[in-house]
Design goal:
The complex is a heterodimer. Chain A is of the alpha/beta class. Chain A has 17 helices and 13 strands. Chain B is α+β, with helices and mostly antiparallel strands. The N and C termini of chain B lie close together (about 10 Å). The chains are: A alpha/beta, B alpha+beta.
Chain lengths: ~475, ~130
Amino acid sequence: MKKNAATIFELGKTGRGAMAQRVPSGGTPANIPESQLRKVQPALPEVSELQVVRHYTNLSAKNFSIDNQFYPLGSCTMKYNPRGAHGAASLPGFLGRHPLAPEAVSQGFLACLYDLQEILKDVTGMQGVSLTPMAGAQGEFIGVAMIRAYHEARGDLERNEILVPNAAHGTNPATAVMCGYKVAEVGLDASGDVDTEALKAAVGPQTAGLMMTNPSTCGVFERRIREISGVVHDAGGLLYYDGANLNAILGKVKPSDMGFDVLHMNLHKTFATPHGGGGPGAGPVGVGERLLPYLPVPMVGERDGVYRWMTEKDLPQSIGRLSCFMGNAGILLRALAYALMLGREGMHRVGEYATLNANYLASRLEKAGFELAYPDRRATHEFVLTFSKQAKSMGVTAMDFAKRLLDYGIHAPTTYFPMLIAECFLIEPTETETLEELDAFVSALAAIQREAQSDPERLLSAPHDLPVRRLDDVKAARELDLVWRAR
Amino acid sequence: MSEIPTELRFATSHEWARLEEDGSVTVGISDHAQNALGDVVYVELPEQGQLVAAQHEAGVVESVKAASDIYAPVGGTVIAINSALDDAPELVNQDPYGAGWFFKMEPADVEELTELLDPEAYAEICEAEEH
């Protein structure tokens, strides 16, 4: 593999181009005002078609991706995206449909969205689902905005605080602040569960709600969740379920049974649609009875087999619209195809195998001499290893292990998160990996552990076999430089 | 083992406070904290003249690993900030108790300093965290 590819600008030569790709020239359109026309040619690369093909094909070969490598990135659920789902969403009728096409000629598309709403309601136990949020962050934002609308509609204006366990994703407190709330943190006990005594002390008439991920980012299932939801409900607050880790419980436990009033789902994680690299995502929200009137529009309704858009007219108390059309429709279609391929039978096997694979890895790694952060707890779909001992005794950190794993052809797990645990890996194998792949991961980490003892420099200077070596992330952050300029 | 100067007082959230001869209080983060954070890449300081209550947010420190809030160890008015950190946040790593200071305050109640941890008590907290 060529190590340092030039940028496409550096490959160009004045006057070079691809005649076959040229847009038929009709001169300058007459209706653009003079003041808006370019005086100087734009600095576009002038390259041949073959140069473009080679350049981007070579770049793509440098990717680390789920299609190339095992990708055990904790809290991100990097699982296999079945090609069948992609195929279904790519049918010409879907691809060619105009977003403003009338309902009468969009019945198939609307039926798909309606069915997805129903499936997601069923699997989460919620009373209503709106598919429109464009990603998890938007789903979260709208979820907490609905909690706010609920309290305000009852004239309960004193509630100004959202509780967040300190193992939460950073998006939870950020969402609460964006919705105008103060954030109060609740700690964990030594076994990774929420400290319920601290929670009881923290709730009060100021509590608007609690945001929680269950299983948490520590890779353990919150055992006292019923007690927690009772405490929050008794104080008049609502419970928000962050769906980041829904994969662990899919088809096995319903967030409604745990007492949650509202949740978002990351279809781009749990329902096997591609993600990473910035999207597109889909973050549908589901709600219990109390928040039903506030769901964002559009949603899809059905009567006598006829489907139609439901808008502000049908839901006058709706929190409103989040985008011009219907979220990322292509991602929603992939999620529906995925859900239908699994069926009710297959859905609960997702949670079972995700959990089995994580516990198998945790158990094998512990036997191989690695230290689990919560050795007494059963892992959920992910678990935490800590390299504190290695850092102290051998001077090699979790980051050095992570970088060396890349040389073994394995994407590094999430490092240094959750922040509560020093020198940690958060490992999530997902249900889509084979036993052989899991065993190869254990072998790779064990081999790196031997290297750490015999030749620590091998780790400290890793990666060795990738297009770039160890990057200076401090320099990158301090002297951010994103723009290429001609020399 | 991290360095803990004996003339300082510490907050459990790892800020240090030093009472100066002129009655002002200088604030920074401990050697243990900078070590745990790793290379600091950005520091957000309070504004001069800003009133801050004890244990309330007075800034942010961002490293390659994490962004963390800085809390005022005592209440009072911010009277000076270390603007050298804008261009050289690495000072926090290199000299946490010297050139890497964050801000100076005029304390509303200087007695609040006695509520902070003394060096021995702070050393115990660091010790516990390192295990």
